[in-house]
Here is the input.
Amino acid sequence: MKITYYGHACFLVELKGKKILFDPFISGNELAKEIDVNSIEADFILQSHGHADHILDTVSIAKRTAAKVVTNWEIHEWLNKQGVSNTHPMNIGGKWNFDGITIKCVTAIHSSGLPDGTYGGNPMGFLVMTDEANIYYAGDTALTYDMKLIPSWCNVDVAFLPIGDNFTMDAQDALTASNFIECNKIVAMHFDTFGFIKIDHKAVIKLFEGNNNTIKLPRIGESFTI
Ligand code: NI
Ligand code: MN
Here is the structure.
């Protein structure tokens, strides 16, 4: 599985021959200036919630690529009003099979207003389940006991977890989350972008290694295979 990091909580995952883009926030990210948002391709955009640091580039990428946007009901309606018609509304607890890629929406403990003040429904995380690999994208969330349910739905091969603290869980809670979800291949997100979420990289890596775990702190623009 090839993964490309576009900064903050935005990843492109290539799975089952499809390009799955999560929470595109690139043009507003000072740290992602070298990324050309107009060159990003996508078959699916998975939108965890409505905050600007997750949805800023969704409308432009969805219109240019015709990618199907999978998100909650309220954001689906909002996107339709912005002229994005290829959407699939879901909600927490539900799953849908998109030609061999099953997406299940799971709990995230956060909030979800849209940039123009529209109510954005509840935030979500995603399980993406295929016969190649299963991934868990937590979205913006606190640590929650609900994460213990995830191994009952699939074996997670790689998990994307926020670690920046202040708006989401920190690295210590992400370590606990990795135990709850029974996955020790963790990719970090939601760190360094703003002053409130700057982290000590060495301390985070040491914390995970000291607990027989691994965490990857990707560089913006980096592609890697897991
Ligand atoms: Ni948020
Ligand atoms: Mn956020």
Q: What stands out?
A: The chain is about 20% helix and 30% strand.
